[in-house]
Amino acid sequence: MKKNTLLILCLCCFLITKGENGYDLWLRYKPVSNHILLSVYRKNITQLITGDSSATMNIIKNELLTGIAGLLQTEIGYHHSVTRDGAIIAGTPRSSALIRNAGIATQLQAAGDEGFVITTKKINGKQCILISGNSEKGVLYGAFHFLRLLQTEQPITSLHIVSAPKIRLRMLDHWDNPNRTVERGYAGFSIWNWHTLPTYIDQRYIDYARANASIGINGTVITNVNANAVILTPAYLEKVKALADVFRPYGIKVYLTARFSAPIEIGGLKTADPLDAGVQQWWREKIKEIYTYIPDFGGFLVKANSEGQPGPQDYKRSHADGANMLADAIAPFNGIIIWRAFVYSHDNPLDRHKQAYDDFVPLNGKFRDNVMVQVKNGAIDFMPREPFHPLFGAMPQTPLMMEFQVTQEYLGQGTSLVFLAPLFKETLESDTYYKGKGSTVAKVIDGTLDGHRLTGIAGVANIGNDINWCGHPFAQANWYTLGRLAWDPAISSEQIAGEWLRMTFSNQPDFLKTASQLMLESRDIIVQYSNPIGLHHIMGTGHHYGPAPWVSNQQRPEWNPVYYHKSDSNGIGFDRTVTGSNALAQYYPGARKQWENSHTCDEKYLLWFHHVPWNFQLKNGRNVWEELCFQYYTGAERAGKMRDTWNTLRPFVDQQRFEQVSMLLKIQHEEATWWRNACLLYFQTCSRLPIPLQYEKPGHTLEYYKNLRFPYAPGI
Amino acid sequence: MKKNTLLILCLCCFLITKGENGYDLWLRYKPVSNHILLSVYRKNITQLITGDSSATMNIIKNELLTGIAGLLQTEIGYHHSVTRDGAIIAGTPRSSALIRNAGIATQLQAAGDEGFVITTKKINGKQCILISGNSEKGVLYGAFHFLRLLQTEQPITSLHIVSAPKIRLRMLDHWDNPNRTVERGYAGFSIWNWHTLPTYIDQRYIDYARANASIGINGTVITNVNANAVILTPAYLEKVKALADVFRPYGIKVYLTARFSAPIEIGGLKTADPLDAGVQQWWREKIKEIYTYIPDFGGFLVKANSEGQPGPQDYKRSHADGANMLADAIAPFNGIIIWRAFVYSHDNPLDRHKQAYDDFVPLNGKFRDNVMVQVKNGAIDFMPREPFHPLFGAMPQTPLMMEFQVTQEYLGQGTSLVFLAPLFKETLESDTYYKGKGSTVAKVIDGTLDGHRLTGIAGVANIGNDINWCGHPFAQANWYTLGRLAWDPAISSEQIAGEWLRMTFSNQPDFLKTASQLMLESRDIIVQYSNPIGLHHIMGTGHHYGPAPWVSNQQRPEWNPVYYHKSDSNGIGFDRTVTGSNALAQYYPGARKQWENSHTCDEKYLLWFHHVPWNFQLKNGRNVWEELCFQYYTGAERAGKMRDTWNTLRPFVDQQRFEQVSMLLKIQHEEATWWRNACLLYFQTCSRLPIPLQYEKPGHTLEYYKNLRFPYAPGI
């Protein structure tokens, strides 16, 4: 490519966009800013040699050439043999003789079927870097990892990396509807344009697959768990096939959600009873049909008998009956069934917290080998802070899959900067005590405690058709986090924040220090100003936008905030001890004892497990009312400080993204103040205690906040 | 800016996007490819001098610097006085002494309050180019026109341009709903993100205003004519204000749609009767409130008593009563009321074609001075080909505003390449004969025939949140066309296609010749394969996607295709002569006589005005059935040829946009074949005549086409 063409292209796009629109995510491949490193990189990266061509190998080749051209600002040659130092050799032992004969069999063995080996080797007397794996998918992951080393300005002179994913299924769950609305979506609408599929392949589909491959995601459920049977009709299967064909060379399998009543709705049957032979036959044929379109179809994700969805219980059958029926039908094709444990009964329950456990523990071991039970990180519903779900460790004979929520339904939705890695890590590192101390949720999920080979982590996607994919520029970090933690739950939040910031914004140390602090504190801040000391589920009804602790008119008790905070003149909090719902009994003693006594309970969860009087003393000497005031005011104040912090980063960020984040932080600060005022004014009607004088008075009355309406809030 | 930074930026964005995503529309400012011209431009453009700074003047300055840097690949200096040849001087007589003293008063007078003067002048002995207007808006239009000269590689050595818009209101009507769905939108969803407004200003809002200013659009109705009163509540007026503040410096006024029943829905009144004092008072206060937010608010667009919308007839009042009530309330603020003439009665009408005329002609002259009546180009509804609306020329005392549809509701929606300039021009150049021969629709609209000063052309927008704004890359040309024709209805389709292609793709002669031919034929082609020889309104129900001439089960007769084609064993077509509905009587004799006799009728409109037997002979010797077959088969065949034509243009177009268009043309060809087969198979059940043997047999049965369902087609 001639330099003047380059010069040309760039001047315009730079001048016109006045910055970056965020579409390129963490794959911007901007030039290495450290000039010493740059020259080292240029010396060590001079040519590329890849294995036999294939769809995936071509992607690897193009990605490496693209990335290196952007990062090193040099066009390296593509060769068939090593002719000089600095050769990059990418391939599998099968596709490349150089790899086959490089003597890295041991490392390759350790890499497993999806992992990769990146190692420095002398070949024909030349210094080379090998990027290898036993599968092309592994090489692809290795190529992206190698580019990440350059993007994050790491040393590459002596590489000896062997990396294999700790989790087998690393998935995104899209709650996308056929009309392109996205349930709990805050980044526009669905990127799946069903109307123009299968013929029109939006560039987004390709870039979506590429971005996921770059962080190791290998599965995607493209339809909402509140499922629509239309996706199983031939016209739509054609469209799903088109997407699967795009995703395949990136190592990504497509999954669908199965509407349990589909045999009635599109099959013309009278029943969907899983024990009915006709129903079983219908699913066998439907699944066979799907595999004619998509030979590597991943399987079904099923939400059954939950929040009004049809399921086996409609026919007095168990979840296992339902899951196994589908599992038997899909087994011949090596597909799997992912069955959600997020259920709660239609009749007034004593404590929704207990339902999933009560329904599923009796089914431990009753599921087929190709069934996984997908469990949310907490027992209620993706709250800003929840104790880990008691099902973890309680179903040893059934592989449990983690369901995180990447989209920020309860964490500021599209307008808040909240980095979710600390939340995810908090759950993964929680100790279930199921096999004694150290039986962390991570070890349950990765199969080590029970020897499960089928393991998985899923994240409810935060992706929409906004130009920058995720709406909030920092929401991209949560997509990135899901992939990285699913690859290795042990990676630290600091590590993830650092990688993402370097690739997305800048490698400048001054920028990184401040920006990663901003990210790492953000989740604590939103907990403080929205759901402090164990409060939960006190948000607005339906759209879940903003505070509404006063709501008590919802048809089902567990849909009402008052059900969860139980605030009254005596005190506040949900008693889940023996004197209350005793949900605590679902935890192993080791876990239970950190929470069961209100005086020793980890105060982060005080009101989660205990109903305490307003004058209840906390360790810091404040009573519960004073503590609520302290938390809400401190949280809102810290939300305001985030704006000041961001303003100091202006020199490091392009104008467009800088201003986007500035405006969003202003909204977040307003929302934080709104949460603070609305919640304290409401709880004050119970505590009848004054807001301490050192705090500014709420700007509006409780009535004002109660009367706010958002008829068109997104994500419903 | 240092060249290496430029080099840097570009390499990545170029390599990563593998082409252009279309976001930059016709404002790409790519380098001038003709190197002789480039050196001439560089010689004649060396420095920029602008008038006193202001929001608009800063936009002008930045646009010129941005455009020139991109086009000429040189950074020209910004100066305060002319120091060398090649100075560009931009400003108004008020803001710039250089302009004031340049001796161009006569030209400026001719430019009027929105026009511009671009002229070559010697100033202080230096060769300069003056870009001037009496208003900053005029200078802004001039700046974009000057850049267009460079983008389209025109000579600039001796410029003497005076240009003033022929139409005063040049508007886009957005049919955007508060939930971000877009009625008849095929480019994603609404670009108005109401939830994050007013604080979050999406870059799109700015780029939208800029794109409109570049083609002279000076007004935008941001809400759907099927209106929602929520937009008139304070929370939403805050949001509207934020958009108005963004648009203002680009010379664009904001208009809203007024739901006629708003006084009841959000005002708590018992009635919306326009003669009720309380209702009048409510609107006076509401309008006063709006102007406190938006001091230059444009006014209301109203769809009343049409398709179920509320209106004055609900209270036995006339359209004039309704419009005048609002006009009186808004007059003190110099706002206007745009009242739509698209109405048809609730009771079974003899011919929907006649309704608007019958309802509105009696109201001629009964409207206030600040009311315009907005009339669709044709009497039915934006059909692929319609005779001009008989209202044009029939209400001389009332200014009529043209309503075109830029979004392709009936012209292939989001998947077809159809250039609409020929359609718009066909209407504008139609002769109403109202003041004798030459009384064209254009002359009615531009006010010359009746001396109206209030004139307007509106287009229903085709803009959505797809990255390229319009979904189909060529749909951008229709947005561009609306602006250019509203500025001057006399500009030819060839001129518009040429300008747009040069700016959007390439100035290469080989490209331009073929691509403009492709565009100029496209509308004829879709008429041929969907609605030939005067057929109309035979599309799918609801979503209006694809053919459905068989539909006869709709509640209202005029919602059924069979109502429009009246096909039966005797023949086909809608008799609108004296022997039928006599809609022809609504036209002046000069116009009428080209259509009233089936044997002399312009055959483009044969079935529009006549019901003729299947064996009716056309001038070409074919009978009607043979002609239908000929038209449908030829049209579908030509749609296929468009693909071959596009393939020859691969060398001139970037990969991403080339492939987008290729895939869409494939869909269009499939849709054309579908139209052909479905329509001919259906009409054959009436004609009972064979499809001539030279044509390939339809691939499916009529039942197959009748059973196609599109439950989630866009734009409903």
From TrEMBL, chains A, B:
Keywords: Carbohydrate metabolism, Glycosidase, Hydrolase, Polysaccharide degradation, Xylan degradation. Residues 150-469 form the Glycosyl hydrolase family 67 catalytic domain. Residues 470-694 form the Glycosyl hydrolase family 67 C-terminal domain. The keyword Metal-binding does not apply. It holds the Pfam family Glyco_hydro_67C. Its EC number is 3.2.1.131. The keyword Hydrolase applies. It catalyses: Hydrolysis of (1->2)-alpha-D-(4-O-methyl)glucuronosyl links in the main chain of hardwood xylans. Residues 25-146 form the Alpha glucuronidase N-terminal domain. Belongs to the glycosyl hydrolase 67 family. PANTHER family: ALPHA-GLUCURONIDASE A. Homodimer. This is Xylan alpha-1,2-glucuronidase. It comes from Chitinophaga hostae.
